[in-house]
Design a protein that fits this description.
Helices cover 70% and strands 2% of the residues. It has eleven helices and two strands. Helix 5 (139-165) crosses helix 9. The protein has two domains: 1-82, no CATH class; 84-282, no CATH class.
Length: 286
């Protein structure tokens, strides 16, 4: 028993002193190793065989199985490192955190509203207000789903991964690497549609890192902003509130009608970054 304890201590010491990039690789390897025994029978039940694209009905339960495990893996990493979730940006759910979360939601939805309003003015999209009644039953479920997805992804990428990489790299190099990994891992779900979105996904990761920075290391603002984008785009798509007219170039509106694969989505992210900087120059820090 003593030998086992000694070996465990030596292994933990080695892991703690390893380069940050190796720790990141170990994190994702462990995450996948824990997930595989869950996803294999689930995929069989849902009749999904990679690399076949996932349908919406297949994607949600498979994504849920992956994301439900994530906090456990992050907790394991924090235990190895001798840290807590506080070190990864998870703060007490107090008034300040709720205000940051709410502000992020507003900024995310408002940014989408502005960018689609401009596209409507240019004749690139048509709004279908006659479908607005479809919004009521989906608003709350999609919001909750967006908060869950954004909370999990922010914990992993802007919480654990970003903080680990900062041990060996400068803040912006760490942010760039974490954002690149964040973008590339989206290829797991939809390769063909994701490839044109990779630059936008990388920039999205950088803007979300900026949100963490201006919020004093808390993930609340980034979670709200991320959830706002998910909420807004999912509601527009599910309720079929807009259609693309084909007048605007796909490079402007987004390849395959994906905003992050076009100039419009990139501009939305850049403007959001500028707004974050301007807001937090003048706003008091809680």
């Amino acid at each position: 028993m003593a030998l086992l304890d000694q070996a465990t201590d030596q292994w933990l010491a080695l892991l703690r002193t390893s380069p940050a990039f190796l720790k990141a690789i170990a994190f994702f390897v462990v995450w996948m190793a824990v997930w595989l025994p869950v996803v294999i029978p689930l995929a069989t039940l849902l009749h999904w065989r990679p690399p076949k694209p996932l349908t919406t009905e297949q994607k949600l339960p498979i994504l849920a199985s992956l994301y439900l495990i994530a906090p456990l893996i992050v907790w394991g990493a924090s235990w190895v490192e001798g840290l807590s979730f506080l070190d990864y940006g998870v703060r007490t759910l107090n008034l300040a955190a709720l205000m940051s979360l709410g502000l992020g939601l507003v900024l995310g939805v408002l940014g989408l509203a502005v960018i689609f309003a401009v596209q409507r003015a240019l004749g690139w999209v048509d709004w279908h207000w006659e479908n607005r009644e479809r919004l009521s039953p989906i608003l709350l479920p999609v919001l909750l789903l967006g908060l869950w997805i954004s909370g999990t992804e922010e914990l992993v990428f802007r919480g654990f991964l970003f903080n680990e990489l900062q041990q060996d790299y400068s803040i912006w190099v760490a942010a760039a690497i974490a954002s690149l990994i964040f973008a590339l891992l989206h290829l797991v779900w939809e390769r063909q549609e994701t490839v044109p979105q990779l630059p936008g996904l990388w920039l999205m990761g950088m803007v979300l890192t900026l949100a963490v920075w201006v919020d004093g290391g808390s993930l609340a603002l980034a979670c709200g902003l991320h959830a706002g984008w998910i909420w807004g785009l999912s509601c527009l798509d599910t309720a079929q509130l807009i259609t693309y007219t084909g007048i605007g170039s796909k490079w402007m509106t987004g390849i395959a009608q994906k905003p992050l694969a076009g100039v419009a989505g990139i501009v939305c992210l850049l403007v959001t970054g500028v707004v974050l900087e301007l807001l937090y120059i003048g706003l008091p820090k809680f």
